[in-house]
Write a structure and sequence with these properties.
mainly beta; 5-stranded antiparallel β-sheet; about 35% strand; binds zinc ion
Length: about 300
């Protein structure tokens, strides 16, 4: 669906598109810096890559495509403060999903039902049936769900999505639906950590309801603005110049085909491509061949 080259295993579920993490690292694909890691670029060219956000030593966002072929584990992620208790090198994980494909009837779990307590969740998990406490949501292509750290969540089967999250790989698993891994063993659960990291005030979560804005070249809508990232979705019908900002942007093409043109070069944009555009790029233009849907993702500092 996304044109990714995959290996011979049977159960690939994630593509890490942009990563600066001990568990996965992006490497520059082409140009004079081809072969450098994202960590090296952040260290050597902070101004050029990060602009006004320079001064950090790790790229702030982890960008993925996820392909859920079965229920993924019921899980929760810590916030920044709690994450450091478990691993001093880790960050909290606030994330957001943009659904690309959902088979009819596809569901996610997004948050707990109102009023669920830690004791109730614990006993339901120990009894092996937390389902009645979970907020289940039917999703369709185009939906965006914002999942701040502390929100209990799970993805159901038949869903492919783009994920924007903090640079973190810290997940606590509450429940795994009784499933076994490829070696026939249950995966470890982290009940106490999960309860400690869950925000019991968060309640049920619904897809965001963005306001579409039209422009001469198509339309756009802001899906999420939070302290960690901002996600804007564009539908580009004709050539558009993206606004000039002194910060990086990530462009994920979700449908259609076109060209990204900047003052220093060109890149093909087609479904499944993710491009990190450094802060130093000027005159960033999207030139569509067919109508292009893309996510424009910015780093920290865009709170609503
Ligand atoms: Zn998650």
């Amino acid at each position: 669906m996304l044109g990714k080259v995959i290996g011979e295993e049977s159960d690939y579920a994630e593509s890490w598109e942009i990563a600066d993490h001990a568990d996965g690292m992006s490497i520059v694909a082409d140009g004079p810096m081809a072969g450098l890691t994202l960590t090296q670029i952040v260290a050597r060219y902070p101004e050029a890559l990060l602009g006004r956000q320079s001064g950090i030593c790790q790229f702030p966002l982890l960008i993925k495509f996820l392909d859920a072929n079965d229920w993924l584990s019921l899980q929760v992620h810590p916030n920044d403060a709690l994450a450091k208790n478990y691993n001093a090198r880790e960050n909290g994980k606030t994330e957001a999903w943009v659904i690309l494909h959902a088979e009819p009837g596809s569901q996610i779990c997004a948050g707990l039902k109102n009023g669920v307590t830690s004791e109730q969740l614990k006993s339901a998990v120990l009894a092996g049936h937390p389902e009645d406490l979970l907020n289940m949501v039917s999703v369709k292509p185009g939906d965006c769900v914002f999942v701040p750290a502390g929100t209990v969540h799970a993805l159901g089967p038949g869903i492919v999505l783009a994920e924007v999250q903090q640079q973190s790989n810290l997940t606590f698993r509450l429940h795994d639906w009784g499933r076994l891994d490829t070696n026939g063993k249950p995966r470890p659960l982290h009940l106490q950590e999960s309860l400690d990291c869950t925000d019991f005030h968060r309640g049920p979560v619904q897809p965001v309801q963005p306001k579409v804005q039209t422009s001469g070249s198509g339309s756009w809508e802001d899906l999420v603005r939070c302290p960690y990232f901002m996600i804007r979705r564009h539908r580009v019908e004709s050539r558009v110049m993206l606004d000039d900002r002194n910060e990086f942007r990530i462009l994920m093409t979700l449908s259609g085909k076109g060209t990204l043109q900047t003052s220093t070069g060109q890149q093909v944009m087609e479904k499944g491509t993710t491009i990190l555009v450094p802060a130093c790029s000027k005159a960033v233009q999207v030139i569509p061949e067919t109508s292009v849907t893309l996510l424009e993702i910015f780093g920290p500092g865009h709170d609503a």
